[in-house]
Specification:
Elements: H1 2-8, H2 28-49, H3 52-74, H4 93-101, H5 106-121, H6 127-147
Helix pairs in contact: 3-4, 3-6, 5-6
Length: about 150
Amino acid sequence: MQRLARIACLPLGRRFASYPGSFFYSGAVEQLCSAAIPLLFVLNNKLAASTPAVKAKVKAALSKSVDRILWKHWDPIGVNDSPAARNEYSNYVPGMVCLLQDGADAVKLAQHLHSLERVSIGIETNPEHRSFVAQQLFDEYRKLSKNSMP
């Protein structure tokens, strides 16, 4: 392990004459480092995209999109033609956003919509409609997540 640590500290491109015939003498360190540098670049970009400011922007955009989808497409009580009822489903947005950010798939989202219909609203839509809305929510989350990456 000490030999590996000592070799890793040497500049790239230097041949290791002190270890002729060894694994490291063949240029494997250069190959290892050339493979690791792009990986570090990708990890750095992912970390930059996960800063609190970026997360807050994604969450705000996601909340707005979820609210729009619930209003325009889900609308289990059929009030989306009345501007006065525009905030009817806004209370359900934070829960949906949390589910999406926690990695819920379209099936879990549809189950949650069904639970909201049954428990909170008292009116159930058909399962195909719930699945359609859940898939729209999931697709919107993936789109926003992808667009937030540098």
